[in-house]
């Protein structure tokens, strides 16, 4: 996977993933990612993917409505989201360290650094609805800035 200027995604993420909401990254226009990275997971992964697909579809529809040339987050929006992930993940680590060992916490030894939104899926999807309602689309629609 290569972005603007031929930069490989693995190179851009050499110090760790950088996205906005786990869906898109600066330097990689029109690349949409679905999955558990830098957003909120849940027990029902099919539901998570459905929510994510809905959010991406909303962004694409808005990009078309505005005539935007690309969907790509600003560096500032991406940096702010990564900071949010780091802050929210601390509580997730503490919670998982106290849980009965299982696959979700690496048999009782969770990773020190998580790439999940620590407040959970309900809060994450509410945050995305609020983000969109409050003009957040301006952070990802390149030609609309």
Automatic annotation (TrEMBL):
**What cofactors are annotated for this protein?**
FAD
- List GO molecular-function terms, semicolon-separated: oxidoreductase activity, acting on paired donors, with incorporation or reduction of molecular oxygen, NAD(P)H as one donor, and incorporation of one atom of oxygen
Q: Which UniProt keywords apply?
A: FAD, Flavoprotein, NADP, Oxidoreductase
Similarity annotation: Belongs to the FAD-binding monooxygenase family.
Protein name, entry field: Monooxygenase
């Amino acid at each position: 996977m290569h972005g603007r200027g031929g930069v490989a995604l693995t190179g851009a993420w050499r110090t760790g993933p950088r996205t906005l909401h786990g869906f898109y990254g600066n330097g990689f226009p029109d690349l949409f990612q679905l999955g558990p990275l830098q957003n909120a997971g849940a027990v029902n992964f099919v539901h998570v993917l459905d929510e994510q697909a809905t959010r991406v579809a909303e962004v694409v529809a808005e990009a078309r409505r505005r005539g935007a040339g690309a969907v790509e987050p600003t560096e500032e929006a991406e940096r702010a989201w990564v900071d949010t992930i780091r802050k929210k993940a601390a509580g997730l680590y503490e919670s998982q360290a106290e849980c009965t060992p299982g696959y979700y916490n690496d048999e009782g030894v969770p990773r020190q650094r998580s790439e999940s939104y620590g407040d959970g899926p309900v809060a994450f999807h509410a945050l995305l609805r609020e983000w969109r309602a409050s003009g957040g689309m301006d952070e990802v629609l390149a030609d609309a800035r």
